[in-house]
Amino acid sequence: MPGGAGAGAGAGAGATGMPPGGMPAGMPPGMGGMPGMNPAMMQQFMQMQGMGGAGGMGGAGAGATADTRPAAEKYANELVQLKEMGFTDEATNTQMLEQCNGNVNLAIERLFAFMGNQ
User: Fold this and answer.
1) What CATH code would you report for 71-116?
2) Using an 8 Å Cβ cutoff, are 82 and 98 in contact?
3) In terms of CB atoms within 10 Å, which end of the chain has fewer, N or C?
4) Which residue has the higher pLDDT, 19 or 70?
């Protein structure tokens, strides 16, 4: 009964609601098969993915305000880490941390590159 097996496979694919093209019926083009994801939701999702850090989505809403504290205050913990590693030029450390948004590992890479260019 080869015809019966083929009919069963076709019925199973139709039961998922997916037409032969692979996109759900009524799905707008360009949404990558993510039903119910409108452009605003996609943008919010992308912003949250870029936030990363401790806890992921915690406090990563659209209403989050920018940290306006001075860099030395904002990156106080990171500056201590760099100083403990032997990077003692606080002005340069602060500048690198500002450029790297507080990412100590990236700041260290830039500090080594900076030291190599002097």
Assistant:
1) 1.10.8
2) no
3) C
4) 70
